[in-house]
Amino acid sequence: MITRAYVTYTLEMEIRKATRDDWPDIQKIDSVVFNHPRADFEVTDNDQADIDATWAVFENGRPVSVMSSYDFAMVYDRQYVSMAGIGDVGTLPESRRRGYVRRLFAAVFSEMRDTGRLFTTLFPFSFPYYRMFGYELVYSHNDFSFPLDAVDLTRRVGGIEFVTEATPEILAIYESFAIGRNLAMKRTPEIWKDRMKPDPYKDQVFTYLYRDDAGSARAYFTFHAKPDGPHRVAAAVRDIAFDSDEALIDLLPHIAILQPRATRATMRLPSDVALDLLIPDPSAVGHTRSAAFMGRVVDLRGALRATLWPGSGELVLSVSDEHMDWNAGTFCVEWGDGECRVSESKKDAQLTADIRVLTQILSGYIDGGTALRHKLLTSDFSAAELSAIFPAKPQFQNHGF
User: Fold this and answer.
1) Domains in the chain with CATH codes
2) Residues facing 344 on adjacent strands
3) If you average pLDDT over every residue of the chain, what do you get?
4) Residue 238 DSSP label
5) In angstroms, rounded to a whole number, what is the distance separating the alpha carbons of residues 72 and 88?
6) Residue 157 carries which DSSP code?
7) 9: pLDDT strictly greater than 80
8) What confidence score (pLDDT) does residue 196 get?
9) pLDDT bucket at 111, cuts 50 / 70 / 90
C-alpha cells in the first residue's frame, strides 16, 4: 500500500524473469533510464538472449524496475571460471525508493548460486551504491598515451598483416595473453564479432596481426582513428594481445606508422604492463589509472578451492556477507600438492574480513599485506606473510556488457 498526497492506493508487486511479451515495456524503461532514443519497440529474435537474462519487478502487471544477469566465463588463477555479469540496472523514476533493486539482487543472487556461479561482476555508475550489495573495486583501467615520434623506428622488425576475422592464430595469441591475467573474459564468437567488427571499412575499425622475422604470429591489435585536433587523429588501440613484452616492444614501431595524420597513440594494457618502461623517453608517456570494475564472490568455498595457493599451508578465516549467508562463517582452508580443502571450523580465526575485501585479495587487485596495512581486514599474520599468501596478480578487463 502506497500513500502520497493524501491518496492511498494498493500495488501488487511481483518479481520474475522477463518474457517476450514484457520486452516492449522493458525497452521503454531502458529508454527512460539510460537516455536511449528508440523509434520502435518491436521484439526480434536478436533480443532473446537479453530477454532470457533479464529480471524485473512488476507493479500491477507492469515492469518498473529491471536487472540483467549474463553468463560469462572469466580467468581466475589460470583457469576459466563461471561469472555472472550484471547490467541494465534501472528503475522508472516514479517507482524509485521502494527497495526494488535490493529485491532484484536477492532474486538474482539466488539464481547465481543455483546455477553454480563463482563470481559476479559489473561496471558501476556509483561505487558506494553497489558496495551496499557486497561488490567491491577489483580492477582499474591501465591507460597509456604517447607521441608516435617517441617510438624508436630504427628497430622495426617483423611485419603486420590486415585481418578481417578472428583467425586461429589470433585466438591462440589471445588465449596465451588472457589465461595468466585474472578477470580476462573468455571470448565467444559473438564477442569476437563485437571486438573486430564485421565490416571494418564501414566501421573504420581495423585489426592487424604481427609476425616476427621468423614468421611466427606474436601479437595483434585493433584500432580506429580518433579525432585529435585540427587535421590530426590519434591511433586509438581498442584491443590488443601479445605473447610477451618483447612482442609488444616489437609491435610499437608498426603502430607508430599506421596513420599519416596520427601524432600519438592510445592503448589500454594489463595491470602488469608498464609502457613507460618500454618507450625510450618515459617522460613522453601519459599514464592514467582509473577505477572501472567491481566484483564479488558468489560461491566462497568454490572460489577458495579454485585459488592457486603458494606451496602448502593452512588458514582459518572468518567471513561476513550480508547478502549471501552461505558465504558467512568461519572456514579452515588447507592446501598443498595442487589440492585445496575448505571446511567449516570452530577454530579461532587467523584472518577476519568481509566479502568485499576478500574478493579484492582473491582477485589479486591488492595483496593481503596492503589490505592489512590499510586496515581493511584484521589478521594474526604479518603484512609480509599475508602478501605471500595473497599476492597481487596480473589482471585485464577490456570487454563491456
Assistant:
1) 2-122 (3.40.630.30), 142-289 (3.40.630.30), 300-389 (3.30.1050.10)
2) 331
3) 93
4) E
5) 16
6) -
7) no
8) 83
9) very high
